[in-house]
Amino acid sequence: MAVGSVATRSRSARRSWTQSAIGSWVTTTDHKKIGVMYIYTAFFFFLFAGVLALLIRTQLATANNTFLSPEAYDQVFTMHATIMIFLFMMPIWTGFGNYLIPLMIGARDMAFPRLNALGYWLFLVGGIILSLSFVFNSAPNAGWFSYAPLTEATPTCLTQAIGTAQQAAQAAASAAAAGGQGCFSPGANPDFWIVGLNILGIASLTGAINFVVTILRMRAPGMTINRMPLFTWMTMVTSFLLIFALPSLTVATFLLLFDRHLGTHFYQASAGGDPLLWQHLFWSFGHPEVYILILPAFGMISEILPVFSGKPIFGYTFVAWSGVAIGFLSFTVWAHHMFAVGLPPLAQAFFASSTTLIAIPTAVKIFNWVATVYGGKVRFTASMLFGLGFVSMFLIGGLNGVALAVVPFDYQVTDTYFVVSHIHYVLFGGSVMALMAGIYFWFPKMSGRMLNERLGQLQFWLFMIGLNAAFFPMHILGLLGMPRRQYTYPTGFGWEGLNLLSTIGAFTIALGVLVFLINFFWTMTKQRTMPGDPWHAFTLEWATSSPPPPENFVTVPVVRSRRPNYDLTHPDAPDWKMEH
Amino acid sequence: MPLKPTWRRRAALALPLLFALLLAGCGDTSITDITHTPNMLDPKGPIALKESDLFWIILIIATAVFVIVVSVLIYSIIRYRARPDSPEPTQTHGNTRIEIAWTIAPSVVLAVVLVATITTMFQIQQPQSPNTITVNAVGHQWWWEFQYPDQHFVTADEMWVPTNTVVHINLVSNNVIHSFWVPQLTGKTDVIPGHDNQMWLQADSQGWFRGECAEFCGTQHAHMDFLVHAVSSSDYQTWVSQQQQLAAQPTDSVAQAGAKFFTTSACIGCHAINGVTTTDASRLIGPNLTHFGSRQWIAGGVVDNTPTNLAAWIRDPQTVKDGADMPAFPQLTDDQINELVAYLESLK
Ligand SMILES: [Cu+2]
User: Fold this and answer.
1) In this predicted model, what pLDDT tens digit does every residue of A495-518 receive, in sequence order?
2) For residue A153, how far is the Cα from the chain centroid?
3) ipTM of the predicted structure?
4) pLDDT bracket for residue A4 (50, 70, 90)
5) Domains located in chain B, CATH noted
6) Sheet holding B178-182, edge to edge
7) Of the residues A95, A540, B12, B185, which has the fewest C-beta atoms closer than 10 A?
8) Distance from CA of A493 to the nearest CA of B (A)
9) Residue A400 lies in a domain
């Protein structure tokens, strides 16, 4: 919209723009609309990064394949992880938090609605900047943790490098010949990464602060901290992690930016800097980040398993506080990503211990989830299937994670496909499965329509089979000595069959995603026919219509237990009469 | 916590799937007729043995935990699945005693794992054997230089060691971070600019062992492999004295022409040949070629060292190893390339 024309417009014309289909989304500060925009945008990036994953798996389907050049492969694997983490997983949790938290705690909106909108638009800008890097053939290509000094350049070599790729290569070569004054990434690839990530960082920070204030200040009467839904708990812990972890990433990336453009030498050993500084800074962000990606999943599962088991979460207090414990401990384990860098043995022993320690609250959660199902009345909805899939797959991710804390064994498997297997059991078997459980569970709430259950079950089985076919062989590939981040591999080490299997698994997952998309678009063409609460759910968001009205509740509800909607639907035996 | 080999074999048999897949990994590689594998579960040295022992322990514990938890889960969903006549479930909110119990149980298991971890970690810090040699492993983009400081020679992508001898390795990089890894002998240690990392390894039996760079280090990270050849100490001595010699004088005329051409071409800007080139070798960015003909591989294991492969490499390294720091020489004629190949292959 041209600025000049706005002034000449009549008041009513402007109002009609904000009320038009597009305008009402662009100008909205409503937490539900912002939440939905987050979810759609993030899901788009999920598809984008999923396509990148398929490119990776196509390249690795056979030995010595030449489908992708090494330069292309490096961009693809870097962007696959970068997008999945920063443009899909983090924002989609923000999206669900946005939509659900105010409803769950009985608030009319987030504490800072306009900041909330700002967060979304910054996220979009960050996403666009990162995606544009492909257009300039300069997508980040040093891995999602972009270790310095591979990402390094100097102002001099950058000026030389402006121009053709040929000149860039020459600049790099001449710098290498001149004694390695760090010009390993003369292209703009790391700059896209740094700028994109920092904009996304600001977006995440606004979201995190908003969640903390909303959760601490906006709860309905009677919604004490101790009665909050566990998804709310986990979002709060996640938000604190973001607030304390992101600064590390900001510092790390800004120092890199200074090295590259201002001629400082923070990470350049030949000039007195230290490459390990990057790793310490990055992983002090990077490890809490892993929990930022999984804690909201824990929260969702703790909402969904109880509903479809027909009984409350087993050990609410344990589940909530183990989340808090994980949050604190996540700041003490970063160097378990660095066991091979040559830390003193005592330091390694410390990080092995803290990592082992963090496994305890995680184990407790798994036991609590199983106990929630035990003795219940289990309904196998698509949502529940994904929830159960989450528990068993995340368990594998936890167990092979413990294996990685076994330092001498880690010396062998770090930087191999074993680690790739671990992160995918955690992030796909864990986070994505929980997310799908959440989508099937809350889709009726958000749209007033029910996703097709049969297609949901089909998708579940495609996901379960696909993910195990894709990621289980990677354990063995790691043990057979296949390093990660190789654009190709030779024959003769037993890697071919396993890689092919993994590729087949990846395409099976893609088929599952296709089934989901069909389900989604098909459902969206149908009428809204949904009752307010199709699941006999427990929490407050189900005590209002689906989708909820603009201010969420006609009257602000009064909460008397952890399961306010259960109380409403069971007037003869509400929780608050049974609890003491 | 060393386990007897028979015990490990039994563990492997108990897991037929894994075992079958591991067998699949014991084949030969196609790029050399040398049998070698990066399979870490087929250890050939004391460190790798301890590390793989730990793996089998963890595997057993993890499998047990997985089977127990998933069995309870599957039992619960079958036993308690909703049927038309199933009663409303009891609304239990938890049980503090049980929860404390299942906080303690994993703590105990994990404590055991942690003790095994830390004891093994300290055990493999210190080498046992009194015989030692020292090698500097220098990581380049994308090949390995091996310097034998006490014997005063350097070679590339191939490191020979005597068996039952502790090999102290100084890890050096003046570019990006690499990681030195020989799965059958030892886990990784990163090669970091400005950090003089050290490690050791020892081979208990003779053979070729595959080494790989394990830290992503740029375009050709995939082709930064090397070989460790463990031999008897007399074979080792023979190899050392051969490597210490200056480059052999070529005898046939084609190779002689190649030698002449090499010393007047661009090659000497990046490669040293001891006794032939005069540039300060430490300033050159390419591998030392003094005994190139004795090596198994070309350029970080991207292809076998055969005359045909070498000709292709010299004609255009970028088609063989896209991104490598050696330019193509389109002006070279076929004859010149043949001469260079004959010369370089004669450098045993
Ligand atoms: Cu490397």
Assistant:
1) 999 999 999 999 999 999 999 999
2) 30
3) 0.90
4) very low
5) 253-346 (2.60.40.420)
6) B158-162, B225-231, B207-213, B178-182, B186-191
7) B12
8) 5
9) no
